[in-house]
Amino acid sequence: MEKKELFRTTVFGGYQRDDVMEYIRSLEEEKEAEIKLAERESVECRAALEQENLLRQKLSEQLEETLGKNEALRRENEASAGENSRLQQLVEETEKQLAALQEKLQESREEAETARQETEVARRET
């Protein structure tokens, strides 16, 4: 491959000073442009990081709030389960009492019917 010459040579075995200076200036400009780009990217990354930190903080607060609500609901659910169990027992007892009362009512109706029939028979006999 052919080697590309960056600088023109001079008669006395060196390089043209203007070519060397121009090359150095171009390298400095490239370096300066890269530094500015890196600084701009750094600022953008810091801003993005700050946004992410704010979002993380907000989500962390929401999580804490949600966990607190969840715990309160769990306690409320446990209390409701206990109350539900107590009420279920009360319903069962009430149903037993109702069944007993309905049985007594039926017996009373049967006794009343028997008494009515006996009264009717007695009236006919008299």
Concise summary:
The protein is built from 1 helix and no strands.
Would you spell out the secondary-structure blueprint of this structure?
Elements: H1 17-125
Q: What key phrases describe this protein's structure?
A:
rod-shaped; 87% helix; 1 helix; 126 residues
Number of strands: 0
pLDDT below 50 for ≥5 consecutive residues: which ranges?
none
Describe the largest sheet.
none
Please write the string of helix (H) and strand (E) elements.
H
Coarse shape: rod-shaped
Strand content: under 5%
How far apart, in Å, are the first and last alpha carbons? 149 Å
Based on CA atoms alone, the radius of gyration comes out at 51 Å
Number of helices: 1
Structural class: mainly alpha
Average pLDDT figure: 91
Helix content: over 70%
Write up this protein.
- The chain is mainly alpha-helical and 126 residues long.
- Helices cover 87% and strands 0% of the residues.
- The longest helix has 109 residues.
- The protein is rod-shaped.
- The mean pLDDT is 91.
